[in-house]
Design brief:
The protein is α/β, with parallel strands linked by helices. It contains ten helices and seven strands. Strands 2-3-5-4-6-1-7 form a seven-stranded mixed beta sheet, sandwiched between helices. It binds zinc ion. The site of zinc ion (ZN) has 4 residues, from loops.
Length: about 300
């Protein structure tokens, strides 16, 4: 049994929405008028659109093509890659806040992959505006055979959960997948920076507790789910979509990339890092976010 896409919003709602900074951020004053997006009371920033995303039809075409996923039957971990380093963009809105701009992410991840044997990074898609989407996997090293064994267990949990639940050996063997999603709202920046700091700590720590954690789990980080919005300092992606309202239709490439990560990783927990929300939302069973589903959401 493969998970039908229609069920994925239910997975998304099993997330923790974690505010990272308690103060508000002013809106981008040069943002153009929004396309027709109904506002259901979630703040004026919802109608901002990433203003400076170039029209790149070829990039959008690439984003719609198949990207390499997580699942591999012939590679273990780490999977050291050399991520393409993007041209510096001095207009990236993260810079004035002292945060990591989108073009600064690949160099950081390339460095972290060299500083040990725990970090693997890959490009799993491109945004509407053609910007790379980065997935980082942090776990203890695995041989290719060990990775295949993990994949067999994952498929067993998916296809025969009752039998898998009775198997006590499975609990000792399986590395629990945890998915950390960051910056789905482009102007809720700090999840990206927090994720990078956590990855660095996990990559370099000598703490035996960290080693034990990584022997028992795989931690997946979507470093920025919305690079168009991050660069422009707005909530939406370059097409003007609130990506956290698009999981039902998955019309945007960023959402399809998140969906594929969740299909491939089958996480037991999703932690979604937002910002500027007064509280932590723990939502195991609520309906998916969307204008036709509910009136208030982070
Ligand atoms: Zn948010």
């Amino acid at each position: 049994m493969r998970l039908p896409p229609a069920l994925l919003p239910a997975l998304i709602t099993g997330l923790l929405v974690i505010p990272l900074v308690p103060h508000a951020v002013s809106a981008d004053p040069v943002a153009p008028p929004a396309p027709a997006v109904r506002d259901f009371g979630n703040g004026p920033e919802r109608n901002e659109v990433a203003a400076d995303v170039p029209e790149r039809a070829e990039a959008r075409t690439a984003a719609q093509s198949e990207q390499p996923g997580i699942v591999s039957h012939d590679r273990g971990y780490p999977r050291r890659t050399r991520l393409p380093v993007l041209p510096e963009n001095p207009a990236d809105a993260s810079i004035k806040l002292g945060l990591v701009p989108h073009h600064g992410i690949a160099p950081r991840l390339n460095d972290l992959q060299q500083r040990g044997d725990r970090v693997s990074a890959q490009v799993v898609g491109r945004s509407y505006g053609g910007r790379d989407l980065y997935l980082v996997t942090v776990t203890a090293p695995e041989s290719a055979a060990e990775t295949r064994e993990q994949e067999r267990i994952r498929e067993r949990i998916e296809n025969d959960p009752a039998a898998a639940a009775r198997d006590r050996k499975l609990v000792r063997t399986y590395k629990a997948p945890v998915f950390v999603n960051a910056n789905i709202h482009g102007n809720e920046w700090e999840g990206t920076d927090a994720a990078l700091r956590v990855i660095e700590e996990l990559a370099t720590s000598k703490d035996p507790g960290i080693a034990d954690l990584l022997a028992r789990t795989r931690l997946y980080f979507n470093i920025t789910a919305n690079p168009d919005g991050r660069v422009s300092g707005v909530r939406q992606n370059g097409a003007g979509f609130d990506l956290n309202r698009d999981f039902v239709t998955a019309s945007q490439p960023e959402v399809r990339a998140m969906r594929q990560i969740m299909i491939d990783a089958q996480p037991v927990t999703v932690i979604d890092l937002h910002g500027y929300v007064n509280g932590t939302l723990i939502e195991p069973t609520t309906p998916p976010h969307g204008a036709n589903y509910e009136l208030a959401a982070a």
